[in-house]
Amino acid sequence: MSIIINTPEGTRDRLFAECQERRQVQARLTRLFRQRGFLEVSTPDTEFYDLFALSGSAISQERMIKVSDPSGKFCVMRPDSTTPIARVAATKLKAVALPQRLYYDQTVYRANPAHNGGSREIPQCGVELIGAKGKKADLEIIVTAIDALRSCGAPKFHVELGHAGYFRELAGRLELEEEKVEEMRALIEGKNFAALTDFLAPYAGNPASAALARLSRLFGGAEVLGQAEKLAGKTPAVDYLSDLYDELSAAGYGQYIRFDLGMVHQIDYYTGVVFRGYVEGAGDAVLSGGRYDNLVGVFGREAQATGFAVDVDAVARTLPELSPPVLRTVVHYEPGYLAQALEAVDTRPAGTSELSPCRTLESSLNLARDKGAETVLVFDKDGERTVRV
After folding, report:
1. Spacing of C-alpha 22 from chain mean position
2. Predicted pLDDT at 113
3. For the segment 256-311, what is each residue's pLDDT rounded down to a tens digit?
4. What pLDDT is recorded for position 218?
5. How far apart are alpha carbons 93 and 241 in whole angstroms?
C-alpha cells in the first residue's frame, strides 16, 4: 500500500534554484542592513497571542495560526516581526541607548482563506529604527527601503508614500464618531466607490468630503500632492510628504517615489508616513512599512519608531531565474586518500564536483554516467588521474 503525504495547505517544498534565489535575496538585503549600522535580532517562532492583542497588531486574529502550549496559554505562530521586536526593545534592550537600529531575517506565518493559493510561510527581511523621530529618521528608512530593492537587482520598481495623518485630518473635519470613521476607512480601502458616495452625501458642502471621495484615486507622481491641496487646502500631512519628496529628489531618489494618499490601512497602528514597494512582475506589494510611534510604549518604554519588511520570495520571483550548477566531475578515492579528494572538491566551483561513495572505480564511472558528469577524478596509490566518462 503506497502512502502519499502532501504538505499542509499554504506550504510547499522549495528545491535547488528556488532555494538559491531566496538565499541570494536574503544575503543582499542583510548585507545592506549591516552596512547601514543595523544589528540582527531573532524572535521565537511561537509567541503568546496576548502580545499581539495588547499591541493592536496590524494582523487580524483570523489570520493568525494558533498553536497549543503545554502551559495552556493561547499561542500563535509569529504573524509579524515588528511587534516581537518592539517587545525586545522595551525589555531586553531597555538599558541600550536610543536610537536602536535592528534588523531581522525570519519567517512570519499567516493563515489564508481556504483554496486561495496564498502562502502561510512568508520569509521576510526587515529593519526597525527604534527611538528616532522626525524627518531624518523617515528619510533614512525610505532610502534604505529603496536601496534594499536596488541591492536585490529588482528590474523596475517604485515606492509609494502615504500618510496616516491625512485621512485622520480629513475625517476630523467631518466631526464623525469613531465607528463612522472606521466604516468610511473600510469603504475607502475596499474601493467601494458607490457606497462611499452615499456615505459622504450628507457632508457634500464640506471641502473635506470631496477630498475623501477622491482619496482612492489620489495616487501617482508629485502632482498628486497639488491635487490634494486643491481639494482640501493645506494639511500638515501633505506638507510633510512634500518636504520628504524635496529631500529625496535632492539625494537622487525622486525617480523611485510615487504617492498614494488612499493608503488608509491600519490607521490605528501607523501614526505617520506609510509606504509600499512595488516591483514589475509582482502582483502585489513586495515591501511595506511606516511609522508606528505608539507600539514600543505598549511594552513599557516610550520610543517612537519606524521600519519596513521585504517579502523575500516575492522579490525573488521577479528576478531572472538561476540555474543550479552542473555536475562535471565525480571524485573517486581509495582508502587513505580522503584528504586529497576533499581538497579537489573544495577547490572547484561549488556544485561542479562531488565525492563518490562507491567502492570501485567501475561503480564510480557508472555513477558519473547516471549523473551526466564528464570525468571521474581518481586518487589512489598510482597518484592523481582523470578518466573521461
Report:
1. 12
2. 74
3. 999 999 998 776 789 999 999 999 999 899 999 999 999 999 999 999 999 999 99
4. 93
5. 32
Nearest to 312 by CA among 9, 8, 33, 63: 33
Distance CA 129, CA 133 (A): 9
Residues of the chain with CATH 3.30.930.10: 17-43+81-317
pLDDT for 366 equals: 98
State residue 265's pLDDT score. 77
So what's the pLDDT on residue 3?
Answer: 78
Q: What is the DSSP string of 89-112?
A: HHTTTTTSPSPEEEEEEEEEE---
Spell out the residues 6+ positions from residue 318 whose beta carbon is closer than 8 angstroms to its own: 154, 155, 279, 280, 281, 282, 286
User: Is domain 17-43+81-317 given the CATH code 3.30.565.10 in the classification?
Assistant: no
- Name residues of the chain where pLDDT drops below 70: 1, 114-117, 267
Output the 3-class SS for 239-251: HHHHHHHHHHHHC
Give 199's contacts (C-beta < 8 A, 6+ positions apart).
183, 184, 187
What confidence score (pLDDT) does residue 60 get? 82
CATH value of 329-388 in 3.30.70.330, 3.40.50.300, 3.40.50.800, 3.40.50.880: 3.40.50.800
Q: Where do the CATH 3.40.50.800 domains begin and end in the chain?
A: 329-388
**DSSP state for residue 295 in the 8-state scheme:** H
Alpha carbon distance 295, 57 (integer Å): 9
Of 343, 340, 352, which is closest to residue 382 (Cα–Cα)?
A: 340
| Maximum alpha-carbon separation in the chain | 96
